[in-house]
Specification:
- The protein is α+β, with helices and mostly antiparallel strands and 961 residues long.
- Helices cover 39% and strands 17% of the residues.
- The strands form 4 sheets. The chain has an 8-stranded mixed sheet, with helices on both faces. Strands 11-12-10-13-9-14 form a 6-stranded mixed sheet, sandwiched between helices.
- A hairpin with a 3-residue loop joins strand 18 and strand 19.
- The longest helix is centred in the first third of the chain and has 20 residues.
- It is globular and about 75 Å long.
- About 4% of the residues have low confidence.
């Protein structure tokens, strides 16, 4: 489900990729005998996500979901308050409160939740705020369940006395950085705030974005924060969800103990639906400082959650925009060639809903032309209607997507929190989707879209207002000025002083003990080799009825010609556009009928076809994949559509500060002439010049079974999988192919600063680092362990604690090693507030420089605990299991590498950490890339001591020419 929520997730956080899992035996055990708990009677409901629901006497709702597949539990605490409970003049409070909630509490102490998370090997305390709800969630090994219940109770009932003016001031800066990252420094970032303000009246709680107004946040006082807490953060306005492998009887005891004496609140009135009402269409436009392409977005009033038309609207917008047969795609993409994609969705919140359709047009396209094409598409749809076969295919795809959301306990906990707030269940939603008919689709189209008033926003590149819809009024967008010293220095500990502790019937300062350690058994993997040299491997997983697979072919972009880059990428774009036996639409519909999704990509070192299908349909799905691979269509019109899309993406990439930073870093790291110094997309000249014969030659010469590895995670055993893939082993002819050898980049002799100018940027994107270890090298994993406390451990890392929590310079920062089979690098990355670009760069550099020499025994203890205990999460999801298969089958790691890496963690010493840091993190031999406002920041960067910054705008333009 698409939400306009804000979240705590770190910028490019590696914590997100750490959701792996282990297979173990035994639930978390009691630290005291289980006794009966007086509570409201339990109700067991649901089949997709079986659940048990009950209440404490103080009104806290509790939901249990038992999942014995891995020795982990996800704990989610949902507060039934979002931005919709705010009032004009006090917006952004719900999200600000989410930030504060993670910091301190009376019994965990300052930063106690993040410290405990590291000790217990948790996934990282995270959360999000939406219009209607705020959810705090984390996955931990199941022996830490009591600790998590203790911690969440401390947050709910024993938190507010720890908030001071200094804490509030610092966190305001963090939230401002989040706003800059998500809105101010992003192309099209203000689309939703502009739309919401026009779609709803000023007193409607959906008329402002979740993050709120910066003026309102600046005006917020400590008394405001305390009043918000007392009103909304009460047990009768909260739900605790636990999903995973645990003993529910014991969990009841712990919940009663830690939550039971928290007082009920004043009571909360439930909101009533208040849909948007428009009397006429309104057109708004904005010249976007970052956008390179014009974008038109149309928004209609939709329906609230629980409305019987929700499912039909979901199906409607897939009928309109999903695939070659979709009428809007036919007109805008195929016929009039105005764009490469039309996107649309229906979002349903508690009191209102929004229907939105968006088109990012090709360079220079007038959005009046786009509007005309949309009108034509709607006329075509009205004439054709929604046919039975199309609706049936879409419902099959949506069913498969439903299952795909349930492959981790964290996703189950989050889903249960959603349904507890919004009503209904996963089963009811799936049943509603299955019940949608073509007549329903046409009915909701006529009721909510056809000829109805809407908001039309035109976001166009700066200096090109003529591309906006005719008759558009200029939207009100408050843009931040870059002023040195505008924000105060922060010190969240400045106001620390004794406070009156909240009374409790027992000593809550004592952290509960851990239960028995989970028994970890890495998943059993099987391997096979087919006659043509194709390697096959798999892991059996029965959690959901899906088969997730990838056919990975060695080489990828390494086969590209640096004088004419982009062939691998362009081939990937047309690969699934039909076969010799099927038109593009016929192939697409064949996959959809099976509930299968297919993606083709060209990476730095591999060309991949990945997919997911209902497990019962694996064989016919792979038959279609084989047909794609061995019998391409080579359709000339499709090549031109793909070429236009690639050129548009190249143009759009120039508007993305993060993408620009990556391009500059690659150019400097690899140097001109190296294929990896070029954009994966190619450049305007090369993409325009690539011919069908070029793509045919790439396919014929480079895609060979001896370079390929097919891997799969599914409920099917080895025999069933090998039978399904037998056609590829039989029909794909073997041939000898050598992957080109490209030089490994050298570590710089000295550090230099490289600046790419984005005038008016509200943030500077920092990427520091250089060439480093490949994944298969002996020091790769030890170096990753070394990096945990530096920048790989999320909120346990020094970089986050000092740049975000200490100074408020950034919303998120990370460092880490990324290694493939042939190349590897170490990078630190962060978007920082523009007016502290030098200060943030110097602090990040100094933390890296001093890391090895200041690494302590406590750091080692935290690192060992976090990385060893997190192995309980090391292979939970299908994606994580595919990663295990890739490491063994492609990188060449031994089949027991997970156990060997566990031994590395256990045997790590302080001296080893220091030696690894000295060897692989040399701040005087690094590449320092800064993408931001050069007029205000570039000259100051000379103070880093690496000479005058080298300006990269012209160099990157020339390299791409």
């Amino acid at each position: 489900m698409i939400t306009r929520s804000t979240a705590r997730t770190l910028f490019a956080s590696v914590a997100a990729t750490a959701l792996l899992s282990g297979i173990g035996a035994g639930a978390a055990q009691a630290s005291e005998p289980a006794t009966a708990v007086a509570a409201a009677p339990a109700a067991e409901t649901g089949t997709l996500i079986p659940q048990e629901t009950w209440q404490l006497d103080n009104g806290l709702t509790v939901i249990f979901n038992i999942d014995r597949s891995d020795p982990v539990v996800a704990v989610a605490l949902a507060a039934h308050v979002g931005s919709a409970r705010e009032t004009p003049g006090r917006t952004g409070f719900a999200h600000m409160f989410e930030h504060l909630f993670f910091l301190d509490s009376e019994n965990l102490g300052p930063g106690g939740l993040d410290k405990m998370t590291a000790r217990i090997g948790g996934s990282g305390a995270n959360g999000f705020t939406s219009n209607d709800i705020t959810v705090y969630l984390q996955t931990v090994p199941n022996d830490a369940l009591e600790k998590m219940i203790w911690a969440e109770a401390d947050k709910l009932g024993y938190f507010i006395n720890t908030v001071t003016d200094a804490v509030l001031t610092k966190e305001k800066e963090v939230v401002k950085n989040e706003k800059r990252q998500s809105y101010d420094n992003q192309p099209y970032g203000f689309t939703w705030p502009v739309t919401a303000a026009a779609l709803y009246p000023a007193d409607h709680p959906y008329s402002w974005p979740v993050i709120g107004s910066m003026a309102d946040l600046n005006a917020a006082t400590l008394d405001d924060v305390k009043a918000f807490y007392r009103q909304w953060y009460t047990p009768d306005n909260a739900t605790l969800i636990i999903s995973g492998d645990f003993d529910p009887a014991q969990a009841r005891v712990w919940i009663q103990k830690y939550f039971g004496e928290i007082a009920r609140g004043p009571g909360v009135a439930q909101p009533t639906p208040r849909p948007a009402v428009l009397s006429q269409t309104r057109r708004l436009m904005h010249e976007d400082n970052f956008a390179q392409l014009p974008e038109l977005t149309l928004s209609w009033p939709g329906v609230e959650r629980g409305n019987p038309d929700v499912a039909a609207l979901d199906v409607l917008f897939r009928v309109l925009t999903d695939g070659k047969d979709a009428p809007l795609n036919q007109v805008l993409i195929d016929d009039r060639k105005l764009t490469s994609e039309v996107s649309a969705y229906s979002e349903n919140d508690l009191i209102a809903g929004t229907i939105q359709l968006s088109v990012r047009a090709f360079d220079g396209v007038d959005l009046d032309t786009v509007q005309s094409a949309l009108d034509e598409g709607f006329v075509r749809f009205e004439a054709q209607g929604a046919d039975v076969a199309t609706v049936a295919r879409i419902k099959t795809m949506m069913e498969a997507g439903f299952y795909g959301q349930l492959d981790s306990v964290l996703s189950k906990a989050q889903t249960l929190a959603f349904y507890d707030q919004a009503g209904g269940s996963a089963d009811a939603d799936l049943a509603a989707i299955r019940a949608v008919t073509p007549a329903d689709v046409m009915r909701v189209y006529r009721r909510y879209v056809a000829g109805k008033p809407h908001i039309a926003t035109s976001f166009v590149p700066k200096g090109k207002p003529d591309l906006a819809l005719e008759g558009s009024e200029v939207a009100l967008v408050a843009e931040e000025a870059i002023v040195a010293g505008a924000e105060p220095a922060v010190n969240q500990r400045a106001d620390d002083k004794p406070y009156e502790r909240t009374a409790s019937s027992f000593d809550r300062t004592v952290e509960p003990p851990s239960g028995p350690a989970p028994v970890l058994t890495p998943p059993a993997l099987w391997t096979a080799a087919l006659p043509n040299g194709l390697n096959v491997s798999g892991i059996v997983s029965t959690e959901v009825p899906l088969a997730t697979f990838e056919l990975s072919i060695e080489g990828g972009r390494l086969f590209d010609d640096p004088a004419k880059p982009g062939a691998a990428s362009l081939l990937a774009r047309i690969f699934d556009r039909g076969t010799a036996m099927k038109t593009p639409a016929e192939l697409e519909n064949a996959f959809k009928a099976l509930g299968a999704t297919i993606a083709v990509s060209a990476g730095d070192e591999r060309f991949s076809i990945s997919g997911r299908t209902l497990d019962r349909n694996l064989a016919p799905t792979l038959a279609l994949v084989e047909e794609m691979l061995l019998h391409p269509r080579w359709d000339a019109p499709e090549l031109e559509l793909a070429r236009a899309a690639a050129l548009s993406d190249i143009q759009d990439q120039k508007s993305q500060p993060n993408a620009i930073a990556g391009r500059v870093f690659d150019l400097v790291e690899y140097g001109p002439g190296h294929i990896l110094a070029t954009s994966a997309l190619g450049n305007e000249r090369s993409v325009a010049a690539l011919t069908m014969d070029d793509l045919k030659a790439f396919h014929a010469k480079n895609l060979a079974p001896g370079l390929a590895h097919f891997r799969i995670v599914s409920p099917l055993d080895q025999a069933a999988v090998t039978q399904a893939v037998a056609g590829l082993g039989r029909d794909w002819a073997a041939r000898e192919v050598a992957v080109p050898s490209w030089p490994t980049p050298a570590t710089p002799e000295s550090s230099r600063v490289y600046v790419y100018d984005v005038p008016g940027a509200k943030q500077s994107v920092l990427v520091f680092g250089g060439p480093a270890l490949r994944r298969g090298e002996a020091d790769y994993y030890p170096a990753s362990v070394m990096n945990y406390r530096l920048g790989g451990g999320g909120f346990a890392s020094r970089l986050t604690q000092q740049l975000r929590e200490g100074q408020g310079y950034t919303y998120g920062i990370r460092s880490g090693f990324a290694g493939g089979e042939r190349f590897g690098e170490f990078t630190l990355s962060s978007p920082v507030r523009s007016n502290v670009t030098l200060e943030a760069s110097a602090l990040a550099r100094d933390i890296m420089r001093d890391y090895g020499g200041t690494f302590t025994a406590e750091d080692l203890d935290v690192t060992r605990a976090a990385m060893s205990r997190s192995r309980a999460r090391a292979f939970e999801t299908a994606g994580a299991k595919l990663g295990v298969l890739a490491n063994v089958g492609e990188i060449g790691l031994p089949a027991d590498y997970l156990n060997r890496e566990a031994a590395v963690i256990d045997g790590m010493t302080i001296d080893q950490i220091r030696a690894l840091a000295d060897r692989y993190i040399d701040t005087d031999r690094m590449i320092y890339v800064v993408v931001g406002d050069a007029a205000t920041q570039a000259a100051r960067l000379e103070e880093l001591g690496y000479g005058a910054p080298i300006m990269m705008n012209d160099r990157l333009t020339e390299a791409d020419r």
